[in-house]
Amino acid sequence: MSENAAAKESAIERFRALTTQIKSYEELLGVVYWDMRTGAPRKGIAQRSEAVGALSSEMFRLSTSSEMGELLDALSEPGAQDGLTAIDRKLIQETRKDYERNLKIPPELYREYVVLTSQAETAWEEAKAKSDFQGFLPYLKQIVDYNRRFIELWGVKGTPYDTLLDMYEPGTTTAELDRLFGELRKRLVPLAEEIAKRGDKPDTSFLQGKFDKEAQKRFSLYTLGQMGYDFEAGRLDESVHPFATGLSTGDVRITTRYLEDDLTSALFGTIHECGHALYEQNVDPALNGTPLCGGTSMGIHESQSRLWENMVGRSRGFWRRYLPELKKEFPAQLEGVDADAFYRGSNVVEPSLIRIEADELTYNIHIMIRYEIEKMLFNENLDPERLEEAWNAKYKEALGIEPSNAGEGVLQDVHWSGGMFGYFPSYSLGNMYAAQIIHTAEKEMPSLADDIEAGRLLPLKQWLTEKVYRHGKMLEPGEIIERITGEPLQSTYLCDYLEKKYKEIYRLG
Amino acid sequence: MSENAAAKESAIERFRALTTQIKSYEELLGVVYWDMRTGAPRKGIAQRSEAVGALSSEMFRLSTSSEMGELLDALSEPGAQDGLTAIDRKLIQETRKDYERNLKIPPELYREYVVLTSQAETAWEEAKAKSDFQGFLPYLKQIVDYNRRFIELWGVKGTPYDTLLDMYEPGTTTAELDRLFGELRKRLVPLAEEIAKRGDKPDTSFLQGKFDKEAQKRFSLYTLGQMGYDFEAGRLDESVHPFATGLSTGDVRITTRYLEDDLTSALFGTIHECGHALYEQNVDPALNGTPLCGGTSMGIHESQSRLWENMVGRSRGFWRRYLPELKKEFPAQLEGVDADAFYRGSNVVEPSLIRIEADELTYNIHIMIRYEIEKMLFNENLDPERLEEAWNAKYKEALGIEPSNAGEGVLQDVHWSGGMFGYFPSYSLGNMYAAQIIHTAEKEMPSLADDIEAGRLLPLKQWLTEKVYRHGKMLEPGEIIERITGEPLQSTYLCDYLEKKYKEIYRLG
Question: Which residues of A are catalytic?
């Protein structure tokens, strides 16, 4: 081995060890965050937040260390990557991106921010339960301030808000989102109006009533099994805000929330989170333990949860197969309801206050509202004190309804307590990705509809594993969608899909 | 401020920050270990073990770093501790002890060991479930080998096994344990024999039967509440091997195990773990976040669990108050049983195979067996392959019974999978400490027996908080016992207590 080859091997080995160490810490913090959300004792939270802050700071320190800088420089020299695997090369590329981004944040600032957001999530839970916006406001103000400072430090791209957007969906801009949301609005708002005016409203009476929590839980577990969720590589728990968390391919956890007076909340929530989980469980095991093990972007991640939730879970075929199973748990409540009625009832379009319970059509309006408010916060310096007011006004204007309290309004989502500004648009991007992907899946798997109707969900899972899941972060969102569908992201597929589905349901021929 | 004063402040501040960082990592690892024992998915364990290994190594590196060495040296210079608080001074003393100990272990060796013991615990759980000693043997062999190497590196004190003992109960030696166990044997073995020959055996028929798990769980939760366990600073879960874990004073978790055919297992197991938890929940909050926050030794810790389990939970007065409550859960099974019968039945003395279900009297024999086997492993180089054989022989010789499989024999305890050799003697030390402490408590609180009989358990908790809990690691085990009782640890109190209790129960006048 030449001296150069030896030096290169040593650099790549040290680089792999360092990125593995960072990923290890991330995994451990993932367990701790999961624990904080699923039942950690209240009185331990303040001290736990300090501990989380200490390890997050260390992760941050490692990712911005001079050793990391030197290794990245050494591995970026001409010829330094010759003979390296594709995984190593992608690892270098992704790590450099994070390195350059993180280097701009002073470590002490970052540490304070981690402690703050860790405490804020608990404060949010309490404030939400009490519908107490003022109780959460001090946290929110600080989190917004930190993000404004981060934007300055990172540098404004286009608009300040673009800087945040880029973090969740690389390359996405306010300009592009304005265009995409514009197209959605142009086709979907008239559709929603037509439905409201002339649609034949489905019966939803059977979805109201009392639905035993344990029975809902059993059906959730059953559904997860049908979808191919690996219970030896995950578990289902409860939390205020449902989430999925991928700690490694062998440990991908889901939470859900059971409402005894609402059958559909946990039903579709579980399918949604399972879509996220299938992605994380089926990443190529070769990526395990590296920072490339996980979904490639929030938009692509959301495309998988929403594809399973809406295009599979809210399809007529799905209920032809699974309604009899659901009736075993709720025979009285669902007596006399057939698959068609259940399908129509669970796809009712109705302006509502809670995003995660919204129908597919108005869902994007919930996202638009958050998108516009976040733009106001960062591009127009909206005072967070005015957030509840702005929120309520936008709901009234866009959906004609207004929250009666902060719990069903501005406090409903966990995201801002964690500083996740710029994340919400991913949900609508996910809807668009999903429609475009399922359009191709239907062409490539002519039996797809029959499979779903027969309860054979695994061929779709297999196809998505092949096309999306196994790649982890090895492919960019744009590469994934182009490889699968042959073209970049379009809004057309979502609009076509929604028009076809809802005109049929609402008998608008 | 003089230059010296500034340098000192800087050293103590850096020292506090460093020890806080180490303690933070310990807390996070505590959450992860708890998770691994209470429901982490099987397929994630290997990767999780790697991640745990990475952070444990970092903790180890910090605790043996040249920075730590320099700070300890600076803070040990003449006058360097003038004006420091008692907490700081104790922190320096305890940290130096760990530093000197850890410095002798090469970091790579330590890292391998952490990964090994992390995987071994899962292997043990599976092996125990299948009673498969051979399946666990490869792990056990390695763990013993590592410990033999550690002893060499640390240096042999007296005998090799003494080096391990010192870790759990500072200052304890094989010589002292031989003496204490000798005294116990001299008085307790004749007592057990007399009971077997001439005792009036209590009726235990009502303890057999079917006891609904949910009802047991409800009673466990009720009992915890009565004992003053703070549910906002803890939670109760299930695990194969019950344990308590103190992550901070605000998060002290308990697990228990419900056997549907055995009422007493969870009943007294929960009280036992709650004794540990009361200790950890009631450490002076000023010690929170420092390495001094926690029980001072395994023996003192065990004295608290066993004081609550045996001297409170297995007392006649306790059942006069709580049997009616227990009957609410199990009216049919306990019909016609009065407090006296329940007291006698739950204190039956019987040679048995499972340590954690043993009565107070024969319990020490279980410990003696483990103590003797561990001495053989480290002082006589017993091959771990012969462990099951040695175990079975000793049970036959000492208790006249032999395990029919490894699950109820050599595999029954989790300790060895975690490399905790030298820990078991703490249980008997705990019994002795407990008897000596309760002897003083009875003198200082003349109403203690009446309080327990009236369900007033909190005065005892308060007294123990004052005498034991609040001190955390600020006092050594020897200081605690001398301060409370005015003399060093004696075996007499335990023997007196057991003789009095069991002669009365077995009507041996």
Answer: 273
A44 in reach of chain B (CB within 8 A)? yes
User: How buried is A296 (Cβ within 10 angstroms: 0-12 exposed, 13-18 middle, 19+ buried)?
Assistant: buried
A429 within 8 A of A481, measured Cβ to Cβ: no
B60 to chain A, minimum CA–CA distance in Å?
Answer: 15
- Mean model confidence pLDDT for chain A: 94
Q: Between β-strands A236-238 and A251-256, what pairing exists: parallel, antiparallel or unpaired? A: parallel
**Residue in A21, A34, A47, A114 to test binding to B, most B beta-carbons within 10 Å:** A47
Rounded CA-CA distance A442/A457 in Å is: 14
| Final residue before a domain boundary, out of B131, B163, B185 | B131
pLDDT band at residue A185 under the 50/70/90 scheme = confident
Residue of A392, A363, A382, A496 lying closest to A436 (CA atoms): A496
Task: Please tell me if residue B293 touches chain A, with a CB cutoff of 8 Å.
Answer: no
Chain A CA closest to residue B55: A25
- For residues A301 and A164, give the distance between their C-alpha atoms in angstroms, rounded to a whole number: 18
> Quick one: B8 and B69 in the same domain?
yes
CA atoms in the 13 A half-sphere facing the CB of B466: 9
CA–CA gap between residue B353 and residue B345 (Å, rounded): 18
Give the confidence band of A1 by pLDDT, cuts at 50, 70, 90: very low
Identity of the residue numbered B207: L
Closest Cα in chain A to B54: A21
Containing structural domain, residue B409: 174-505
B286 touches chain A (CB under 8 A): no
Q: CA–CA separation, B325 vs B501, rounded Å?
A: 24
Q: Of the residues B121, B125, B273, B329, which is catalytic?
A: B273
Instruction: Note the helical H segments in A39-85.
Output: 45-63, 66-76
Q: Can you list the alpha helix ranges (DSSP code H) found in B131-262?
A: 133-154, 160-168, 174-198, 213-227
Mean of per-residue pLDDT scores for chain B: 94
Of B25, B35, B230, nearest to A31 by CB-CB distance is: B35
Place of tokens 């600032």: A109
Q: Judge whether B159 lies within some domain.
A: no
Contacts of A294 in chain B (CB under 8 A): none
Q: Is the torsion defined by CA of A370, A376, A382, A386 positive or negative?
A: negative
Q: Which helix (H) or strand (E) holds B129?
A: helix B107-130
* Stronger pLDDT, B171 or B411, i.e. the higher one: B411
Which pair of tokens denotes residue A435? 């429609």
Q: Which residues of B touch A38 (CB under 8 A)?
A: none
Q: Is B24 on the interface with A (CB under 8 A)?
A: yes
Judging contacts by C-beta atoms under 8 Å, the chain B residues touching residue A21 are 54, 58
The amino acid at B14 = R
Q: What is the DSSP letter of B457?
A: -
Interface ipTM:
0.90
Task: Please name the residue of chain A whose CA is at the shortest distance from the CA of residue B234.
Answer: A41
Residue A166 falls within a domain, yes or no? no
Would you call B230 an interface residue with chain A, using a CB distance cutoff of 8 Å? yes
Closest partner residue to A43 among B20, B35, B232, by Cβ? Answer: B232
User: What is the mean predicted confidence (pLDDT) over B378-394?
Assistant: 96
Residue of A nearest to B45 (CA): A250
Verify that A190 and A117 share a domain, yes or no. no
Query: Do both B346 and B440 map to the same domain?
Result: yes
Which of A96, A131, A166 is the C-terminal boundary of a domain?
A131
B399 has a pLDDT exceeding 90: no
Of A27, A55, A251, the CB nearest to B25: A55
The mean pLDDT of A22-33, rounded to a whole number, is 97
Query: Helices marked H in B239-386 — which ranges?
Result: 263-281, 298-306, 316-329, 339-345, 360-379
B183 in the same domain as B70: no
